[in-house]
Amino acid sequence: MDPDDDDDDAEAPGLPPGVSRYITPAGLARMEAELRALMRDERPKIVEIVSWAAGNGDRSENGDYLYGKKRLREIDRRARFLGKRIDKAQPVDPAAQTRRDRVFFGATVSYVDEADAVRTVTIVGVDEAEIGQGQVSLASPIARALMGRQVGDEVRLATPRGSTLLEVTAIAYP
Q1: Pick from 10, 65, 73, 64: nearest CA to 38
Q2: What is the pLDDT along the chain (174 residues), one digit of tens a residue?
Q3: What CA–CA distance (Å, rounded) separates 172 from 107?
Q4: Which of 1, 103, 110, 139 has the greatest number of C-beta atoms within 10 Å?
Q5: CA 9 to centroid of chain Cα atoms
Q6: Burial (0-12, 13-18, 19+ Cβ within 10 Å), 84
Q7: How far apart are CA 167 and CA 172, in angstroms?
Q8: CA of 98: how far to CAs of 103, 104, 107, 149, 172, in Å?
């Protein structure tokens, strides 16, 4: 485990060994924007509320004060998490990929499974993956199975329901 990772960052799962902190420029920009919004907008508002609430007397039964202090801790924890992830991030622009015939970081890959279901995923960094939007983490089993493949390649993927055969049907980069 990385000594720089906080134990209280439950949303920050450790990366498997050998997985880089690659991130797309758009993903890095979103993380930086979230950090700026927390520190420039949200945190000062909560500090103001806590200061006002502290001036109202007994803090032990002051809901605004107690909630505000709790929210400040949450903001600070998230800011630490984002700061560490941003510092360690290795931005990679998928549009600059020269080998567009193979699956690499940032590729949008279409594949068909044994049930003839066609799926499309984009391989992104661990910190920006959103399965609902078809973005899978570089560390995910599907991404690891597809990496380095080209159109027409078949790959066997181990799933909780058993092994399934996938065929790569298309590869695209932005």
Answers
A1: 73
A2: 344 444 444 444 555 565 678 999 999 999 999 999 999 999 999 999 898 888 877 777 778 888 999 999 999 999 999 999 999 999 999 999 888 999 999 999 999 999 999 999 999 999 899 999 999 999 999 999 999 999 999 999 988 888 999 999 999 998
A3: 6
A4: 103
A5: 14
A6: middle
A7: 15
A8: 11, 10, 12, 15, 12
Output the CA angle 128-85-7, nearest 5 degrees.
Answer: 105
Q: Which domains does the chain have, with CATH numbers?
A: 22-91 (1.10.287.180), 94-172 (3.10.50.30)
User: What are the counts of helices (DSSP H) followed by strands (DSSP E) for the chain?
Assistant: 4, 7
Is 29 in a helix, a strand, or coil?
helix
Structure confidence at residue 98 (pLDDT): 87
Given a contact cutoff of 8 angstroms between Cβ atoms, the answer to whether 154 and 141 are in contact is no
Give buried/exposed letters for 91-130 (b at 16+ CB in 10 A, else e).
Answer: ebebeebeeeebbbbbbbbebeeeeeeeeebbbbbbbbbe
- pLDDT at residue 156, as a whole number: 94
